[in-house]
Amino acid sequence: MKARITVLAGDGIGPEVTAAGVRVLESVAGAFGHEFEFVDALIGGAAIDASGSPLPPRTVDACRSCDAVLLGAVGGPKWSDPSARVRPEQGLLELRRTLGLFANLRPVRTLESVLDVSPLKAEVISGVDIMVVRELTGGIYFGRKSRTALEAEDVCSYSAHEIERVTRTAGRLAMQRKRRIVSVDKANVLETSRLWRSVVERVISEEFPDVSLEHMLVDAAAMHLLLRPTSFDVLLTENMFGDILTDEASMLAGSLGLLPSASLGDGRVGLYEPIHGSAPDIAGRGIANPCGTILSSAMLLRHSLGLEREAATVEAAVESSLSSGLRTADIARKGQASIGTEAVADAIIERILTVH
Ligand code: NAD
Ligand code: IPM
Ligand code: MN
Q1: What is this structure's pTM?
Q2: Annotated catalytic residue, options 67, 186, 272, 330
Q3: CB atoms closer than 10 angstroms to residue 89
Q4: CATH classification of the domain holding 346
Q5: 28 lines ligand 1 (CB under 6 A)
Q6: Residue 145 annotated as catalytic
Q7: Cα–Cα distance, 46 to 7 (Å, whole number)
Q8: Quick one: 94 and 211 in the same domain?
Q9: Which of 15, 193, 233, 239 could bridge across to 139 with cysteines, CB 3.0–4.6 Å?
């Protein structure tokens, strides 16, 4: 098949990990006889430096007119002055909003071969397989904001419609999995969470009667994720709770650098991004873990291009490369040598080409 993929490398380690993701997609195209065209566009700090805007109109056009978008990360100390008028992160938020990407799928799985790198006990995390469904275009991220010298506010609001549609995404995913949803909120304090709870309850009972639903308060969920992570199947939650809980959950997998995500909506274009940021502390050294981005490109193959076999091949290649001990510094065993971003991509590509 032919597909056009817009690549938004962004800042920090963004260009390093997206280069690895693109090379993997190119190898998939070669191995399976597809034609992928890659179009680069600017976002984040790189776009601010070039044009003054973190999301130039040309970038939006490139994202609207392609089949899928692969994104690295945005942000960094250069653009982090609290009094700055524009910030790199605004570009990413505006892109998610403008493309209508209300559901962010963040799969969290422990790979048996890297069980030893998590700070958590192997017997607790072995077999973890959670699909976090994070609402992505509502809540406190997108409410009214104001700021004076002495006061600031960020309004958190949700409409029933926003909750319904992301609940349907979670319901459909649960039906393909173990049919269990834990919906995470703060209904003991927040009005938005009480609405969340009642809408989730209604949509699941009316439209997904075979799915079991449990509600959990977010503070307790943060604890249960570490205490009994294998008991979760689909975890559905609002924008900010999902952001925080998935960085926490990345420790179940072993590193923030391992987790992929897919941002989907009702529209045609999906955005695929690792859950980590621009990692300024390691940027430019060629040591970032590209697996989160490479696994995001597998999600791109699956969700935007409908190429399930190709997606599964990439995922198997990542697992095989990790289990043969090829690791970046963030997941290296104590005292053992690590390899760089490109070498990890090489190992994964070699496997894609040989298993196919
Ligand atoms: P971060 O995720 O960039 O880094 C947190 C820690 O994890 C760092 O020690 C980093 O080195 C490590 N890490 C992250 N990704 C890694 C990888 N692939 N391989 C190895 N180690 C990795 O979070 P931060 O430092 O709090 O934020 C830095 C900047 O990134 C901020 O400007 C933030 O807004 C931005 N950010 C962007 C995105 C995004 O674009 N989607 C996501 C999160 C944070
Ligand atoms: C993420 C990031 C973003 C978010 C930031 C950079 C706006 O942390 O994708 O997890 O909070 O959604
Ligand atoms: Mn985050």
Answers
A1: 0.98
A2: 186
A3: 17
A4: 3.40.718.10
A5: no
A6: no
A7: 13
A8: no
A9: 239
